[in-house]
Amino acid sequence: xxxxxxxxxxxxxxxxxxxxxxxxxxxxxxxxxxxxxxxxxxxxxxxxxxxxxxxxxxxxxxxxxxxxxxxxxxxxxxxxxxxxxxxxxxxxxxxxxxxxxxxxxxxxxxxxxxxxxxxxxxxxxxxxxxxxxxxxxxxxxxxxxxxxxxxxxxxxxxxxxxxxxxxxxxxxxxxxxxxxxxxxxxxxxxxxxxxxxxxxxxxxxxxxxxxxxxxxxxxxxxxxxxxxxxxxxxxxxxxxxxxxxxxxxxxxxxxxxxxxxxxxxxxxxxxxxxxxxxxxxxxxxxxxxxxxxxxxxxxxxxxxxxxxxxxx
Length: 312
Description:
Helix content is 44%, strand content 17%. By secondary structure, the chain is an alpha/beta fold. The protein has a domain at 2-162 and 192-225 and 274-288: Rossmann fold, CATH 3.40.50. The strands form 4 sheets. The protein has a 7-stranded parallel β-sheet, with helices on both faces. The chain has a two-stranded parallel sheet with strand order 7-10. A two-stranded parallel sheet has the order 8-13. Helix 1 links the parallel strand 1 and strand 2. The protein starts with a strand and ends with a helix.
């Protein structure tokens, strides 16, 4: 199987690459080439749909795994054209090519397609109602895939983090190392999801989906790790483990605050908890442990810090 992986240098893409390499021949693309990239790496901006069509016709992948996304939530409010270009037009182009060439697409979406007004976990059949340009653009991407009629899986997830890239865990640790007192939002609730867990679940879904040799399993699915927390709760867990791992001498002073204390361009959903029963039933996949995942991520960060000190 020939696999095209977009956004391969990102948090999720870099976790998917070694897993997908076992499934077939992977061609990895991103705007930048990371150190140590292999010969199958293509540095290319695929948001240009004309260039993308040429690339697809040249590579002719059997499976497209699209992790490329515009994720700057606040910036999207002032730059909707770019958000829709990357989050809607790009997957639409991929989907139309896949339909014409009998290929499959695994695409990622977000909890931000919902308005956050619920009090029970969102299912795949709950009506979306995005409250931000980012959420609107991601929902438009979902619609583009469905409208194209290709074999596709849309995997919605939430609050993705890892030991690399740009995410809440690394931001909190950076702020703590500066000795700052932190006000952290306590009225938004969601399920932090380790990028590696999401990659493992994706790989298992691909195995079952492509192994069936049919359109079985196409549609929208939810996956997130197994614990719902506020951002304040998440920060407390991060700092507790970071102190134990020796990354921090002590946790910073923290204060839980409402969202209203932060002036942000985009509205965030207050409730982002996703129901994962469908993916569990369809692929026999269960939610993975948030606590175990966060411990592993903190251990990786601590190890990277130790390695950097040794080099210096």
